[in-house]
Amino acid sequence: xxxxxxxxxxxxxxxxxxxxxxxxxxxxxxxxxxxxxxxxxxxxxxxxxxxxxxxxxxxxxxxxxxxxxxxxxxxxxxxxxxxxxxxxxxxxxxxxxxxxxxxxxxxxxxxxxxxxxxxxxxxxxxxxxxxxxxxxxxxxxxxxxxxxxxxxxxxxxxxxxxxxxxxxxxxxxxxxxxxxxxxxxxxxxxxxxxxxxxxxxxxxxxxxxxxxxxxxxxxxxxxxxxxxxxxxxxxxxxxxxxxxxxxxxxxxxxxxxxxxxxxxxxxxxxxxxxxxxxxxxxxxxxxxxxxxxxxxxxxxxxxxxxxxxxxxxxxxxxxxxxxxxxxxxxx
Amino acid sequence: xxxxxxxxxxxxxxxxxxxxxxxxxxxxxxxxxxxxxxxxxxxxxxxxxxxxxxxxxxxxxxxxxxxxxxxxxxxxxxxxxxxxxxxxxxxxxxxxxxxxxx
Lengths: 331, 102
Hints:
The structure holds 2 protein chains of 2 kinds. Chain A is mainly alpha-helical. Chain A has helices at 3-6, 18-29, 42-61, 63-70, 76-101, 107-116, 133-150, 159-187, 191-210, 222-227, 235-253, 278-288, 292-305, 307-330, and strands spanning 263-265, 270-272. Chain A has a two-stranded antiparallel sheet with strand order 1-2. Chain B has helices at 39-50, 75-78, and strands at residues 15-21, 28-35, 58-63. The longest helix of chain B is centred in the middle third of the chain and has 12 residues, at 39-50. Chain B has one domain (11-92): Phenylacetic acid degradation B (Ubiquitin-like (UB roll), Roll), CATH 3.10.20.520.
């Protein structure tokens, strides 16, 4: 999204032949897809590995703020929905890790990059979820922003990434709707419930808008990603699109978006909105958000606690395979 | 020859490619890949990962390392044979265009 993550990795170009480079350019220009074993510029490969793994990490870390509420969901129905959603996020992480692996990075390496902080995940998941209304805000605002970002990625020039995104987008729309309905139900409730919903939206609105990344002038690598057709729209364009969708939705909810500068601009045909506090964004990105440390620590612990299961399953599989082999040789 | 999707990395579990038949009458189609210790677990994991919304009635898994594919660097020559053989398509035969039921 910015600085360290956006810095291109070593520019060691595995120089293709002129013919290979021309073929790559031709596929990109013709809006065709690049597939795993095609020749591709090293910088393209590295940009994709960074973006896809960061996206996968976001899905996996993103299970935590909601997992926090599974045992306390207000009804059995809400609990079942929340579990389904968190399970989807695990699935999305796995689709994306698989896509990243086709670029020549293994999963253990990606895991290590997450734990050591070499790879980032979306800063939004470093915010805490103190109330039930936050499950609503995450669905409506965070998943809403994610969908805005992800729909164009279904057409990303790298085939496995686009295919993973298509699958993800199909599943993601339920996430946004269930969040909206949590807020709607609270807004139809008591004064205390309405206040809880409003306070939650007050906390999540700006961080959700920052999910699209820094303003275009501060996002140097966006241009290149757009030229490669990995990214189809700029950060600011997507942010504008998102605000334009939110305003009428907020009216349905009866919730006030915490930005006094939101105003319809007839001339532009868009809503104007106030500037965001990017210092906060960079602080969270640098590891000083509400929950950075605990998110990564919990992921690490879960991985380590599961080590014996992975090893036992592997040992069992090996033993079964050996037994089958012995049987085959005896017969 | 490396298999598609296999990074050749230091994985605890091997990589499997997953194919799903979405309904009767259709072929199994590649859905994605996953890690699993053996074929039984691979099928179960595939069910949990790729059919959470009833997307399938049948699943195939195959070890990624067992797939043999054509050489990506030689695809030009390898797929050359049909080039210039438009007569293999019905659209090549234009004289009969207006004749009914043909």
